[in-house]
Amino acid sequence: MRITILGSTGSIGVQALDVIKRLGQNTNTCALSAYNNINALERQIREFCPEYACLVDENAARELKIRVGDTSTRVLSGVEGLLEIAALPQADMVLNAVVGIAGLLPTLTAINAGKDIALANKETLVAGGKLVTDAAKAKNVKILPVDSEHSAIFQCLQGAPPSRAIKKILLTASGGPFFGRSKDELVNITKSDALKHPNWDMGAKITIDSATLMNKGLELIEAVWLFDLSPRQVEIVVHRESVIHSAVEYVDNSVIAQLGVPDMRIPIQYALTYPQRCPCPVEPLSLTRYGKLTFFEPDAETFICLKACIRAIEAGGLAPVAANGANEQAVKLFLEDKIGFLQIGELVMRAVEEQRHIGDYTLKDVLAADKAARELVMKQVNII
Length: 384
Fold this sequence. Notes:
The protein starts with a strand and ends with a helix. The protein is of the alpha/beta class. The protein is globular and about 55 Å long. It has helices spanning about 10-25, 40-50, 60-65, 80-85, 105-110, 125-140, 150-155, 185, 190-195, 205-210, 215-225, 265-275, 285-290, 305-315, 320-335, 340-355, 365-380; strands at about 1-5, 30-35, 50-55, 75, 95, 115-120, 145, 165-175, 235-240, 245-250, 255-260. It has a seven-stranded parallel beta sheet with strand order 4-3-2-1-5-6-7, sandwiched between helices. Strands 9-8-10-11 form a four-stranded mixed beta sheet, with helices on one face.
């Protein structure tokens, strides 16, 4: 198995490389990419010896090319370089761990090149759901989920009958660092507060999304497309311990769940080795050590991002694109200390309400809607 990793220096990419190293000689990398992390990508090039590497930032790519001139790795740059490695003929699979809507075009490029996709970039399906699923069907390629929740659902469905017989899925959420707090208690939240996730080690953007519950809203939209469900077939359950990663309820009211310690190497490895299961260095789950598992309903009135995502997928069309684009822009502003924590949800909801397109769409439509949502956010906070 030869794998290209897009976003190899981020949390998922680093853990994926650890999995690949432990899987041994039958699995290796043919290409790695990052945005501008020269030092980390250089270390990965020297350890994993990929044929190709790409930095989207062209200045960073020029420096990397000089640094690794003593290796056989060919360094590419820009979005063009990213798309080139996404379609390499020698790759069997592309693991997409790019953050944000920037991952959509590489996913479509890899699918059109006939590559199976290990998908850690949820925005691919949030923004381009129908485009991506239609392309995958046309090219007969697999989309294997890497997110722990979607991997759990995928694993639970392995025992489903041909008709699937799904009543609904139970999509679990940690609840983030502010579980149980009211709006009044969230007014003065700082980015340092929001970056303290209770269970998972993730990048800044995804950690903020977890704090606002936007991450769970995006995962709900992704699940609708990934598993061909209606929004009403997805129930979000706050599960603080992050042991049950998600579950499927069948029409006979039987529920099958996937459990494990919160470690992303399990879903990453399952995507890379599917349908096989291999030994994994992750700590075994001890239910007696946990003692009890707890479950709560999410508070969509306080965490407006979740409510906005539910409204977006129910509306359909380009509304999910607007939700995602507005959130990406708002989170950037929050991390720059330019807006408050609660403003993120308010801006996402505003973008969803103003996006009224319903029906079929093209990639051009998606990119235009994304741009419009970002501009709406900037205008709302009087930055442009």
